[in-house]
Amino acid sequence: QVQLEESGGGLVQAGGSLTLSCATSERTFSLHPMGWFRQASGLEREFVGAISARGGTTYYADSVKGRFTISGDNAKNTVYLQMNGLKPEDTAVYYCGVKRSPLLVNSHRPDNYDYWGQGTQVTVSS
Predict the structure, then answer these.
(1) DSSP assignment of the chain
(2) Residue 6: pLDDT band with limits 50, 70, 90
């Protein structure tokens, strides 16, 4: 069973920054791309970005490109989502997920992920 432990959410003013963390096992981190998604109240889960296994390549949704950065720490088997320039429309529950296929292709589709973290709330006030 793959376990993901998320942390780092909170309340921040518009323009501020937050960093989310998603810790997993060495095996998962080494073999599977990992993605970040978010889900605002009443809406479907939305792709934010993804990172390849071991963190070599990243891919972002247009809505966050240039503001959000995904990185990985091989020593800690942890993926991070650094969020800068936060906007009220970024308010959502953020989830990290483990992609089924070892390839980064189609990482924007939530149905390509087998395991999810518990989610962490990010609230951006105007």
Answers:
(1) ----EEE--EEEETT--EEEEEE--HHHHHHS-EEEEEE-TTS--EEEEEE-GGG--EEE-TTTTTTEEEEEETTTTEEEEEE-S--GGG-EEEEEEEESSSS-TTTT-GGGEEEE---EEEEEE-
(2) very high
